[in-house]
Amino acid sequence: YGGSQIGGALLSMSSAEWLFFLLCCASAAWLVMTVAVSLVATLCVLPKIRERNATPVGSWPHIAVLVPCYMPNEEGIIEETLDAICDVNCSYAGVMDVYVPYNTPHALDAIEGRLAKLTELNGRVLRCERVVSSTSKAQNLEHALRHMVGDASIVIIFDADHHPRANTIETLVRTLVHHPQLTMAQGSVLVERGGYPLLQWLVDGMEWASWHFHAPGLSLLAGSAYFGGG
After folding, report:
1. CA angle, residues 49, 55, 57, in degrees to nearest 5
2. Tens digit of pLDDT for each residue in 187-227?
3. Is the peptide bond before 216 cis (omega within 30 degrees of 0)?
4. Are 220 and 40 spatial neighbours (Cβ–Cβ below 8 Å)?
5. Quick check: pTM over 0.90?
6. What is the rounded CA–CA span in Å between residue 230 and residue 225?
7. Cβ distance 64 to 91 under 8 Å?
8. Nearest to residue 186, comparing CAs of 210, 161, 166, 221?
């Protein structure tokens, strides 16, 4: 009796109701598939990557760290970010050069003057350059990749408000060195620098689930996973 009721309801649905029903079915199937591959990635794939990453690296490659910046929006945070990237506790043992390609709609004498004087920070080569023709961070990056990175074999990109942990750069490089079949390795962006405790806990949990659970699963399902910033 119940089956005939369901069958009758399906037959009496309009075109719009059928479309909504099929969309719900597709969404449910996608959700189940995404969660399933995320579990596989979290429980099986990521532990193997971490195990291989634990082996020593014979020779650390020369790397370039790019920090594209837009002034004046990020004028007040770029120096703090550079201090965090070039922190004395950074565990990367190879040659690491840091480049800041930035654009600004008008001259900012104070911050630009300070950036121009920076040639090294805690033993790391540091170069800041205004990309005069640029109107976006994408153009800043294109300029840096063409004219700034030199003979570095690996490029790492941080946003102007990213404060990496001391082992972040080493972990990213280890992953690429031990997995030469990979073109790119991506870290996770978490909320760790303060704010209202409850809100910080909630947002950090959401970010953790996205980076450590859903993104690895999506990379298995689609071949890659990436984060797009504003």
Report:
1. 110
2. 888 888 778 889 989 988 998 999 999 999 988 888 888 77
3. no
4. yes
5. no
6. 17
7. no
8. 210
